[in-house]
Amino acid sequence: MGSPGMCAYASRVSTDEQAPREYRMAELAEAAGITVRTLRYYRERKLIPPPRREGRVAWYGDHHLARLRTVATLLERGHTLGGIAELIAAFEGGRGVAELLGLGGAITVPWSRETLVRLSPGELLDHFAGEATPENLAASLDIGYLAVDGEELVHVSRRLLDVSRRLVREGVPLPAVLAAGREIRVHADALAATFAALIREHVLAGLPAGAAEGAPPSPEEIERMTRTLDKLRPMARTVVEAEVTMAMDRRVRTELRSWLGEE
């Protein structure tokens, strides 16, 4: 027979194995493979439910870990954090999983493949020496190019950041770059509305009558929609790139004729 101490230890281990696991914040972050800072950010974005409070200590459970793993999976599939938050809110509101991760997922997978860039204030100053003024920072935040995450700034697109920096180095003032970006955003939204109308009228219109009345689409319909949208994404990029480059050719020829005439 074992000693009383060993028996108590075995009993405690058996109880621990049956009881749900609880984690402190650092333990949960480690189990999920993320930083504590990222975990705090997810919590602020309501991507995970609130922890259980015991005095001043916050306790997280296996359901929090499962949620974090779901978020990681959706990020790998191309969803944005904003899109994931909407999916979670819709799920908790009672909408079906097939709709959220099937048809809804097919539609909300980002069409862009932009890379976020995290910058300290000092790094932003290095990128735009003499141009990183409070006014330009406010304009960038207003357009949506920049967001604040704790003590860091997050730029929405590495490509846009690189182009903005190169334009400034070529002599274009940053306020002019931001004003142009705001105007381009308006035209880009109009182009997106055109493609969205095509999808709504010629793709979503193909859903069966039951889905249109609120019933979830069948797995076959979800598969067909996913394949169609996957084909449309590169087509949209090709059309926009072709039209913009041809428009630039026309504009350059016009500007050149005007400049030669003035000279």
Layout of secondary structure:
Elements: H1 4-18, E1 22-23, H2 25-32, H3 36-44, E2 52-54, E3 57-61, H4 62-76, H5 81-92, H6 97-108, E4 117-119, H7 121-127, H8 134-143, E5 146-149, E6 152-155, H9 158-169, H10 174-202, H11 209-212, H12 219-262
Helix pairs in contact: 5-6, 6-12, 8-10
Multimeric status of the protein: single chain
- The percentage helix is 55-70%
How much of the sequence is in beta strands? 5-15%
Instruction: Sum up the overall morphology in one term.
Output: flat
The main sheet orders its strands as: 1-3-2
Could you tell me the mean pLDDT?
Answer: 77
Structural class: mainly alpha
Terminal-residue CA separation: 106 Å
DSSP summary, beta strand count: 6
**How many helices?**
12
Identify low-pLDDT runs.
1-18, 94-103, 209-213
- What is the N-to-C order of secondary-structure elements (H for helix, E for strand)? HEHHEEHHHEHHEEHHHH
Radius of gyration equals 26 Å
Q: What about the largest sheet?
A: 3 strands, antiparallel
Provide a compact summary of the structure.
The chain has twelve helices and six strands. The protein has helices at 4-18, 25-32, 36-44, 62-76, 81-92, 97-108, 121-127, 134-143, 158-169, 174-202, 209-212, 219-262, and strands at residues 22-23, 52-54, 57-61, 117-119, 146-149, 152-155.
